[in-house]
Design a protein that fits this description.
Among the domains are: 49 residues, no CATH class; 65 residues, Alpha Horseshoe (Serine Threonine Protein Phosphatase 5, Tetratricopeptide repeat). Helices cover 82% and strands 0% of the residues. Helix 7 runs parallel beside helix 9 and helix 9 runs antiparallel to helix 10.
Length: 257
């Protein structure tokens, strides 16, 4: 009887040891998983807080949150890209460039850092570098309308009107409500003296956004050259009240005679 009891005791001990080994193993695994997801959640939370602060025009505070993300995960490409945006808003172009380039290094398949770096290069008076980055961004995301708008504006600034027109057309094909593409296309049409077509674009913009002040100015000038002085002066006066540069000069020139 004592042997049987001893036998069952040994079995019980073995099973108990197996149970505790399995239990601790699973517990350790669970803790590791919990820590992993906790870190991931904190990264997301920090990123979201930083994004909010950028929208609130508080780039310095946003940088603090992006720093926290990078401290936790030095391979977080999004954090570098967003911190680059914050530095750009502070006109700290050196740090902004470093962060955009790091974001690209970490994730070469994301078009956003290329787009942001292109905007930075324009601010730094480096149009060739900007164009190179816009081209890369479009290769990565060929259906993003805004990229064609931005590149088209660059072409327009560098007097490559043919290329600019193609980009604005492509942008509007992808997104007919792209106000900046409509506006820039209208400016080209106006410069080509296609005032009736420019007028249509300016009207479209205003129908999409009644606060798009520059469109009233463009529409006013278009109406004036189409011999519609009454309408022209109404729109120019509206633009003047919205503090559009040159609107007051145009109103005095064309409407106060």
């Amino acid at each position: 009887m004592q042997k049987i009891t001893s036998h069952f005791t040994n079995i019980f001990r073995k099973k108990t040891m197996i149970f505790y080994k399995t239990f601790f193993k699973n517990t350790i695994y669970f803790v590791i998983v919990l820590i992993f997801f906790s870190c991931q959640n904190s990264e997301k939370n920090f990123l979201n807080e930083g994004k909010k602060l950028i929208k609130q025009n508080k780039p310095e505070q946003a940088i603090d949150y992006f720093n926290k993300v990078i401290q936790q995960n030095a391979n977080n490409a999004e954090a570098f890209n967003l911190r680059g945006v914050a530095y750009f808003n502070l006109q700290d172009y050196t740090n902004s460039l470093q962060d955009y380039s790091k974001a690209i290094q970490l994730n070469e398949k994301n078009y956003k850092p290329y787009n942001n770096r292109a905007i930075l290069y324009l601010a730094m008076q480096k149009p060739d570098s900007a164009l190179e980055d816009y081209n890369k961004a479009i290769i990565l995301s060929p259906d993003t309308a805004s990229l064609y708008t931005y590149r088209g504006f660059l072409y327009y600034q560098t007097n490559k009107i043919k290329e600019a027109k193609k980009d604005f057309e492509k942008s509007l094909l992808l997104n007919p409500k792209d106000k900046e593409a409509l506006f820039n296309q209208a400016n080209i049409l106006f410069s080509e003296q296609s005032f009736d077509k420019a007028k249509i674009n300016f009207q479209k913009i205003i129908s999409l956004d009644k606060d798009f002040a520059r469109a009233y100015y463009g529409l006013g000038l278009s109406e004036f050259y189409l011999k519609n002085k009454k309408n022209a002066c109404q729109y120019l006066e509206k633009a003047k009240k919205m503090n559009v540069p040159d609107a007051e000069i145009a109103f005095k020139k064309y409407c106060e005679k």
